[in-house]
């Protein structure tokens, strides 16, 4: 492919003069990767290097970069209808995508509310759950139950249900009441019994808690959680922003666990990272509770870019590729190959665990002394880059989360990148 040739030095200087990056310790991490192009699983840097995108660019690029079918869908839709408000209007790409999502989602989820990103998809579910109790005359049901080590996003509701350490402590006075529980049926039963009719909903990341440490819990817990929520008469929210679209070995982690949630939140791989789009799926009963003639009996939430036609068209094309290319099977194969290559690293004294689910492999290191984690993370990223792969540690956890287009040869390089990080982390 023909690549642009901007100067790496000029690009980095311009960045340093005016850009503020997300989740970045700018006092330590002073030189971002200067990425000028991407295709498949490869990122092309301004200095001529090529890196395998071993984390799917924050777990979004499920098919890989620059997929021709997605580019074609984007270009075609841009020529027809680029954008229109979604309040009081509709358009074919949104209707087609909503129908596809309802057809793929766990049974009982028949309505799709579009938003912009994973945090807002969660925010929508939290607001709907609480507002539904208001409509039922039970305003005291305003406590949410979440799992320890949870991460659900960075907006205020999503921060509230996330485990605050280490990200959100500063915002504690502004967050609403949440009770956290380990993913154990007995612990959850105890919390729900203690809180009684104060609970609005339980929110979980099914099977895999990603940003909170790549913890994996069994399907049996989710099945027990559904039964306990039914017993308590509360809603269950499944946050599949990270786990959806094949990442855990099924289209949705809920499918693998046999879970039927009241809300399903999706984003990231929904558009393969090509456009910002999210969706919150819920039940017909929930929709009907708000579809009334009374002035305040509607859901007051929306975004300018809600159901953007271009994003919806790309998402539909991405869902078609999921079926056409057996993406779920391919991700399972990739995860298995990486795990086979790195599982022996569990014998290292400073490695506490090596684990896998679907196409995601994680290596948990012994904790770094307080205050040294950021410096170690940067050192480990550089070690992987030296092997030709982008891997970005999450706290004490190294992980690989590559796109489905990753070749077996690239899988071997990713495994070497993980091994190099383990070696670089040795005390």
Q: How many helices does DSSP assign?
A: 14
Strand content: 15-25%
Total E-strand runs? 16
Given as residue ranges, the uncertain stretches (5+ residues, pLDDT < 50) are none
Query: Could you spell the SSE succession in H and E letters?
Result: HEEEHHHEHEHEHEEEHEHEEHHHEEHEEH
Residue share in helices? 25-40%
| Broad structural category | alpha/beta
Instruction: Summarize the main sheet.
Output: 7 strands, mixed
Evaluate the radius of gyration.
22 Å
Overall morphology: globular
Strand order across the biggest sheet? 4-12-11-10-7-5-6
What's the mean pLDDT score?
A: 95
The rounded distance between the terminal residues' Cα atoms is: 42 Å
What does this entry look like structurally?
- The structure is a single chain.
- The protein has 427 residues and is an alpha/beta fold.
- It contains 14 helices and 16 strands.
- The strands form four sheets. The chain has a seven-stranded mixed β-sheet with strand order 4-12-11-10-7-5-6, with helices on both faces. It has a four-stranded mixed β-sheet with strand order 1-2-3-15. A three-stranded antiparallel β-sheet has the order 13-14-16.
- β10, α9 (253-257) and β11 (263-266) form a beta-alpha-beta unit.
- α7 packs parallel to α8 and α12 crosses α14 (408-424).
- The model has no long low-confidence stretch (mean pLDDT 95).
């Amino acid at each position: 492919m023909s690549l642009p040739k901007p100067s790496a030095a000029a690009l980095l200087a311009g960045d340093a003069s005016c850009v503020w990056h997300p989740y970045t310790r700018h006092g330590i991490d002073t030189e971002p990767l200067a990425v000028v192009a991407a295709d498949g699983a490869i990122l092309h840097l301004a200095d001529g290097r090529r890196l395998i995108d071993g984390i799917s660019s924050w777990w979004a690029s499920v098919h890989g970069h620059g997929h021709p079918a997605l580019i074609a869908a984007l270009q075609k839709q841009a020529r027809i209808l680029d954008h229109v408000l979604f309040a009081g209007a509709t358009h074919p790409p949104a209707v087609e995508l909503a129908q596809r999502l309802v057809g793929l989602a766990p049974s009982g989820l028949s309505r799709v509310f579009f938003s912009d990103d994973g945090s807002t998809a969660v925010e929508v579910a939290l607001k709907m759950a609480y507002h539904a109790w208001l409509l039922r005359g039970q305003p005291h049901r305003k406590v949410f139950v979440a799992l320890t080590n949870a991460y659900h996003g960075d907006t205020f509701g999503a921060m509230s249900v996330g485990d605050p350490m280490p990200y959100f402590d500063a915002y504690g006075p502004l967050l609403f009441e949440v009770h956290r529980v380990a993913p154990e049926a007995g612990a959850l039963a105890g919390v729900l019994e203690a809180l009684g009719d104060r609970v609005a909903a339980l929110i979980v990341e099914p099977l895999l808690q990603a940003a909170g440490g790549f913890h994996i819990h069994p399907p049996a817990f989710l099945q027990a959680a559904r039964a306990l929520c039914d017993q308590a008469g509360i809603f269950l929210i499944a946050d599949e922003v990270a786990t959806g679209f094949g990442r855990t070995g099924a289209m949705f982690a809920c499918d693998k666990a046999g879970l039927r949630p009241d809300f399903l939140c999706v984003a990231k791989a929904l558009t393969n990272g090509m456009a910002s789009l999210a969706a919150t799926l819920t039940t017909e009963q929930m929709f009907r509770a708000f579809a009334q003639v009374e002035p305040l009996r509607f859901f007051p939430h929306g975004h300018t870019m809600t159901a953007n036609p271009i994003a919806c068209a790309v998402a539909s094309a991405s869902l078609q590729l999921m079926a056409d290319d057996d993406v779920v099977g391919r991700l399972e194969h990739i995860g298995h190959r990486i795990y086979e290559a790195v599982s022996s690293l569990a014998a290292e004294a400073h490695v506490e665990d090596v684990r896998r689910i679907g196409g995601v492999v994680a290596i948990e290191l012994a904790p770094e002394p307080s205050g040294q984690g950021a410096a170690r993370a940067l050192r480990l990223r550089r070690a992987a880059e030296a092997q030709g792969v982008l891997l970005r540690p999450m706290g004490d956890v190294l992980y690989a989360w590559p796109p489905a287009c990753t070749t077996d040869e690239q899988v071997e390089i990713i495994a070497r990148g993980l091994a190099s990080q383990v070696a670089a982390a040795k005390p």
